[in-house]
Amino acid sequence: MATAPSRRIFTASALASLSSLALASCDSTTDPAPSTPSASGAVPSTNAAADGATATVPIPSGEPLPTATTIVAASESSETGSDAPWVETGSAQAAGDAARLLVTGVRTGTHEDYDRIVVDLSGEGTPGWQAGWVADAGTQGKGDPIQPSGIYILRVFGTGARMPSTAEEIASAQKTLSADLDLPAIASFHYDPTVEAQYQLVLGTSSQSYRIFALSSPTRLVVDVKHP
């Protein structure tokens, strides 16, 4: 019998430093993460029925991207994107011509047969990507080495993104995120903020079968890695 998957959501009630990454747990399958009000307009939360995830907390302007982790149980009754093909080689999809998307959050979780990374986006257009397996990876700009745990390294560039244009957006969107996840397929991940219309995800994995697709209403880029 399939069991309800556990979900990890990067919330807006974050610690200020990645070195103090906090882990909290929640056993309820019905109580979503609490909402955080925003004085200047909250980012739309993710649709639970669309991707099998509980709603992400809106990120208020002026606060950094979340670095704390919350674990909740979530239903997998609706799994939009399951028709996307699983691949083991490179994968690419061009962003829409008018895409200008701002990253507002990154979430992780595990399902019965795969692990998932969701990048929440706001703005206009359809996101694109370029992905492939690499021997090593470095940060955007500086090129500092990224050393994820795991057997393989999957590097994904999300395209169609835009740089923050206000002080509030810079404070909330231009943050690096790294975490050891210890999931069946994704051991760790690293997120690099947007540089020249693209952001970067570096996943340390134990499997080389993955799929990537975009969802809308609200806009998301989804990366699944199949369990070994």
UniProtKB/TrEMBL annotation:
The lineage of its organism: Bacteria, Bacillati, Actinomycetota, Actinomycetes, Actinomycetales. It comes from Actinomyces gaoshouyii. InterPro entries: AMIN-like. Residues 102-227 form the AMIN-like domain. Pfam families: AMIN-like. PROSITE patterns: PROKAR_LIPOPROTEIN. The keyword Transport does not apply. Residues 27-48 have a biased composition (Polar residues). The keyword Signal applies. Residues 1-24 form the signal peptide. This is AMIN-like domain-containing protein. Residues 27-66 are annotated as: Disordered. Keywords: Signal.
